[in-house]
Amino acid sequence: MSEFKGSKGEWKLAFAEENKLAIRTSQGILMKFWKPDKYPGQDERYESELQETKANQILCSKAPEMLEMLKRCEARIEPKDIHISLLNDLRQLIKEATE
């Protein structure tokens, strides 16, 4: 199985510049998420988009741990224990994440 070629270590949530949220490691910033623009009279839209951006940031920050969990599951699952197409899907997802 291929190894993950991305940034090693814990990915943490952080603030970058004034209007940007970020994910960083001890080596620096990996990616930035722009906060939505705020316009008068559009507070509900702004809050909704801000929550969506934060949720995306959290999901992305957990990618290394999710990949490791998938690998652990794949290593422990026997084809007889699970529907074979599900196991193949799991292996394909790991492959795509590590190529």
Structural class of the helix and strand makeup?
alpha+beta
Q: Proportion of β residues?
A: 15-25%
Spans of at least 5 consecutive residues whose pLDDT stays below 50 are: none
Q: Any idea what the shape is?
A: elongated
- Rounded to the nearest angstrom, the radius of gyration is 18 Å
What is the number of E strands? 3
Percentage of helical residues?
A: 40-55%
| Count of distinct structural domains | 2
Main β sheet profile: 3 strands, antiparallel
User: What's the helix-strand series?
Assistant: EEEHHH
Query: What is the overall pLDDT average?
Result: 84
Strand order of the largest sheet: 1-2-3
**Given the structure, what is the number of helices?**
3
Ends: how far apart? Answer: 10 Å
Could you please describe the fold and organization of this structure?
The protein has two domains: 54 residues, no CATH class; 37 residues, no CATH class. With 99 residues, it is an alpha+beta fold. Helix 2 packs across helix 3. A hairpin with a 4-residue loop joins strand 1 and strand 2.
Observed structural traits:
single chain, about 100 residues, alpha+beta, 2 domains, three-stranded antiparallel sheet, 3 helices, about 15% strand
Short description:
The chain is α+β, with helices and mostly antiparallel strands. The chain is 48% helix and 17% strand. It has 2 domains: 8-61, no CATH class; 63-99, no CATH class.
